[in-house]
Each structure stands twice: as structure tokens, then as C-alpha cells.
Design goal:
By secondary structure, the protein is α/β, with parallel strands linked by helices. Helix content is 40%, strand content 11%. Strands 1-5-4-2-3 form a five-stranded parallel sheet. α3 links the parallel β2 and β3. α4 packs across α5. The N and C termini lie far apart (46 Å).
Length: 143
């Protein structure tokens, strides 16, 4: 029974990932360290996570699973050219359970953005970013 449950969860996670262009945390960290204009990075998870620690330079847009989070993302992204590279991340929970990333990606695609990627956070932001020594900053979400 456990094997069946794991298999079903894997299929669901792969199905979600198939709809999204993904980028690994290490690749995002490398992009941050590179010279030149980098991507715009939006945090689309809970405010408490952003306030604690977040990717330097990322913009808090609110949870992608809530209408007010999607509206904040729409407003923030609406100022950008549609060919600008955008990376979204959450990190609230394992990728297969995340309610925030997929709605946020879908919104940006409907708005006409062509270079949207989701950072693949397999377990959570602490394990997949902070514990690996990638750069962080803490602070209040700006609205």
C-alpha cells in the first residue's frame, strides 16, 4: 500500500512539473552570483517564510493559492516587459504538496510572460536552499 501511495504521489509531482519550466536551486544561486542583469524573483509563499529568510532581491508577492496573492503578483509583474525572465518560488512544503507555485505560473503565462520558471523546492526552503548555504536575507515583505 505504501508503495502504491508513493507511486501516486510521484506521478502527481511529475504531472505538475510537466506543466512548468523548472530551475534547480543551485542554478538560481549561480544566477544570483553572476554579473549582469539577472531574473526577477518573486516569492509566492507565506509571508512568515519571506520575513524569516528569503532569496536576496526577491520580491514578496503573496501566496499564489490566494486571490490577494495573485493580485499582488499581477500588479508587481505588470510593470515588467513580457520577455523578462521571471523565477517564482515558495518553499512552504514539499513540491508535490505546494499550493502556491502552479497558480502563480499560470497567471503569468495568461498575462503573456514567456520566460517564467519555477524553482524546484523538493522538500522546503530551509532544506533545499538555506541548509545548502545559498545566500539569504531576512526582512519584512514590502507591499
Amino acid at each position: 500500500m505504501r508503495t502504491l501511495a508513493i507511486g501516486i504521489l510521484t506521478v502527481l509531482a511529475v504531472g505538475l512539473a510537466a506543466d512548468l519550466a523548472l530551475i534547480q536551486p543551485g542554478d538560481v544561486a549561480a544566477r544570483l552570483a553572476a554579473k549582469g542583469a539577472g531574473p526577477v524573483i518573486f516569492h509566492v509563499g507565506p509571508n512568515v517564510l519571506y520575513r524569516n529568510k528569503h532569496i536576496p532581491g526577491s520580491v514578496y508577492a503573496g501566496p499564489g493559492s490566494r486571490p490577494e496573492g495573485l493580485e499582488a503578483l499581477r500588479v508587481a509583474a505588470g510593470k515588467l516587459p513580457h520577455d523578462r525572465e521571471i523565477i517564482l518560488y515558495c518553499g512552504c512544503c514539499p513540491w508535490s504538496n505546494c499550493p502556491n507555485v502552479k497558480p502563480a505560473v499560470e497567471l503569468l503565462k495568461r498575462m503573456g510572460f514567456t520566460r517564467v520558471k519555477a524553482m524546484f523546492v523538493a522538500t522546503n526552503f530551509a532544506k533545499d536552499w538555506i541548509d545548502k548555504g545559498y545566500p539569504v536575507e531576512n526582512g519584512t515583505a514590502m507591499k
